[in-house]
Amino acid sequence: MNKRIYSLAGVAVLAASLALTGCGARTDAGTGGGSATKVAKIGVIAPMSGGLSAMGLGMKNSVDLAIKQANASNAIPGWKLELAAEDDQATPDVGKNAATKLASDDQVVGVVGTLNSSVAQVVTPVLAAANIVQVSPANTNPTLTKGADPATPKRPYANYFRTCTTDAVQGPFAAQYLLGAGIKKVATIHDKKAYGQGLVEAFTTAFKAGGGEVVAAETINPDDSDFSAVISKVKAAGPAAVYYGGEYPQAGPLSKQMKAAGLKVPLMGGDGIYDGKFIELGGTDGDLATSVGAPVETLDSAKAFVAAYNAGGYAEGYSAYGAYAYDAANAIIASLKTSLASAADAKSARSATVTDMAKVSFEGATGKVGFDEWGDSVSRVLTVYKVDGGKWVAEKTGELK
Question: Could you tell me if 288 and 304 lie in one domain?
C-alpha cells in the first residue's frame, strides 16, 4: 500500500483538478476510454464560527489542501475526493447533528475532527454506528481511546484515531517544565469541559508526584467573562503560577484580569490556548502553553505543507492544528487507496477503511504518522511555548520523560 503524502504539483495542476467537480459517478471526457469517476467524501467537523473558529477553519483548509493534492495526483484511480465540511460551533449538540448529517451521506467515507474532546464524545458514537473512520488532529482527552477507567483501559470505538498526543502526556510535560523552572506552588483552574478537566487532572497528578503543591483548585463556567471571584480565591493562596485547563476565549481574558488584580504570575495552559487569539484577548508576556509536536515552521517535513498552504489562497492561517489535520486527511486517503480500489461505491468501503487505518504509517508534515493499538498517535513530541514580545516563542521541545 502506497502511503506517501503527495506534494502540491503546481497551481496549474491544481486548477485542472478543481475543474473536475460534480457529484456521483460521471464520465471523464479526457480519459479517451469513457471511464466512470466515482465520488468519495472526507468530512470535517470543527468550529467554523464562534470563538474557536481560528482553529477550526485552519483544520478545514488543511483537509481541503490534502484533498486537492490527492485529486491533482490521481492518488486513487477512478475516484474523485470531495470535502464535506460541517460547523460544530464547538458545541456537543451541534456536533452530533453534524455527525448525523455526514453519516447519512452515502458518499462520506471518513471524517477529520473534532477540535473539542467534549464534542468528540458525542460525535464518535454516531460515526462508529455508520462504520465511518474518524481521525482527530486535536482531541487530547485520554478517555476517547482508552475509556473512562485508566486502571483498566478499553478502547471504546474502533473507528476513532488521532494524530495528536494526549493529555496523559501533555499535562505531565507541563508539570515537569514548571518543576524544572523551580515553580513548586501552582493553582489550577478549568472550565468543566472534558478537555480542560482532563488536562488539569493529568497535570495535577504529575505535579504532585514531582514534589509540587497545588495550593488552590478552582473552576469556571465555559461562558464566563468576569473572573474576579475565582482570581480572588487563587490570589489568596499565593501560587507561583496558574495552570488553566480550557481554551483561549476564556484564557486570554483570565490572564489579563489576573494581572490587573495583582496576581502577576504566569498563566500556563495546554494546546487549547496556543493561538494568537490568546494574546489578542489578553495573554501577556511570560504566559505559557504546551502544544502537540514541534513548531511546524521548524520541521523539514512540514516545509512542503506550509508552502502549499500559503500558495493555496486561504483567508485564514493553518493555526495550531492545521498540519495535524493535513496529516489526518492524508491518513484517511492512504487507507482509501486500499479500501476504494475494488469498491462499488463509497459506502461499501467504510468498514474496510476503518480496518486499513490501523495499518497506515508514513512520514507526514508533523513527522511520523501512525497509530498504536488504541488508535493514539505513535508520536509523543510536545513543545512548551512562551509569550515573548507579544508573540508565541518556542521554549522547549521534547518527549515526556
Answer: no
Asked if 265 and 178 sit in the same domain, the reply is yes
User: How does DSSP assign 98-157, residue by residue?
Assistant: HHHHHHT-TTEEEEEE-S-HHHHHHHHHHHHHTT-EEEESS---THHHH-S-TTS---S-
Domain co-membership, 387 together with 250: yes
DSSP state for residue 30 in the 8-state scheme: G
Give tens-digit pLDDT for 385-400: 999 999 999 999 998 8
For residue 150, what pLDDT is reported? 81
Mean pLDDT, rounded, of the chain = 91
Q: Which three three-digit cell numbers place residue 187? A: 493553582
50, 36 Cβ separation under 8 angstroms:
no
In the Cβ-directed half-sphere of 183, how many Cα atoms lie within 13 Å? 21
The C-alpha cell of 291 is what? 502544544
Distance CA 174, CA 248 (A): 17
Whole domain around residue 228: which residue ranges? 167-292+382-399
The residue to which cell 480572588 is assigned: 232
Give 2-49 pLDDT, tens digit per residue. Answer: 433 333 334 333 434 433 333 444 434 333 334 569 999 999 999 999
Residue 245, in any domain of the structure: yes
- The distance in angstroms from the start CA to the end CA of the chain is 34
Grid cell 501533555 is found at 170
Lowest mean pLDDT among 4-8, 105-109, 211-215, 370-374: 4-8
Q: Is 267 helix (H, G, I), strand (E, B) or coil?
A: strand
- Report how many domains make up the chain: 2
φ/ψ (deg, to 5) at 194:
-55, -45
Question: Does residue 80 lie within any of the structural domains?
Answer: yes
Q: What is the DSSP letter of 342?
A: T
Q: What is the CATH number of the domain that holds 180?
A: 3.40.50.2300
Position 245 confidence tier, pLDDT thresholds 50, 70, 90: very high
In this prediction the pTM is: 0.83
CA dist., res. 193 & res. 224, Å (int): 13
